[in-house]
């Protein structure tokens, strides 16, 4: 065989191999997973260790969002299959509009990792003292529900507080320029504002489990109905992050700190501010529930109670028809 013929044969073989690989790549479904930075969270372990890519037999892409409302726009346009680190209010707003979405994994309940931080020296000692004050809030996010709930408990009209809509990173800047008196936010910015001298007025630990603040992973219900195995693999990858965090706490904290852009002590504090849920926890009554009990689970009740608050303050125009239909524990049950 001549040298030129050998070169030609080698080229054809390589082209065939590349074409085969390309065809195999194209044959795999595409999975886009959105996420927020909620501080030290087992999700960060799943993401950093590449567990989504290792567990889900698909072309997996991760996409960052600064807030829940921004992610909901992407979900509405069908450009995401899953979204994690989402607060309950944006999700409620979505399903109240009829978007085909469901919670497939409740990541954690906020306890001391979110709440209201106030500037010292402003005379804000109670929630009632927020009247007329400038408070930063990510409108449409979990903070809308939290603020409305805390103000209602204190008998303070929702509209009596000067609310400034901004993202968590913008809140940090506004705090340093002294253009806000308070902020209602979550980690890592909640922790950062405390580090800048802020005083905690309220934390989410004071909210009941059935009207609480959760980070949730949601899915496009039409897509998961067509790809139930991939949805189960998605939940399994999340659970692997939870398991790793429990079995290797020091290594997990180092991973979370790096991913969230915080120090180890801060990551430890942030993680302590969450009640973390595993795949096994999902089917209990304190999380998603199972079977007919889904309707009375803590997650479903939180959807109902959040919707009532959002309707009252004008964030939504109608209540979701059946919140229980937007809570889907079957993939967690299969992942166990």
TrEMBL record:
N-terminal signal peptide: 1-26
UniProt-listed Gene3D superfamilies: Periplasmic binding protein-like II
Signal keyword on record: yes
Subcellular localization, as worded in the UniProt entry: Periplasm
Any Pfam family: NMT1
Similarity comment: Belongs to the bacterial solute-binding protein SsuA/TauA family.
Protein name (Swiss-Prot/TrEMBL): ABC transporter substrate-binding protein
Organism: Acidiphilium iwatense
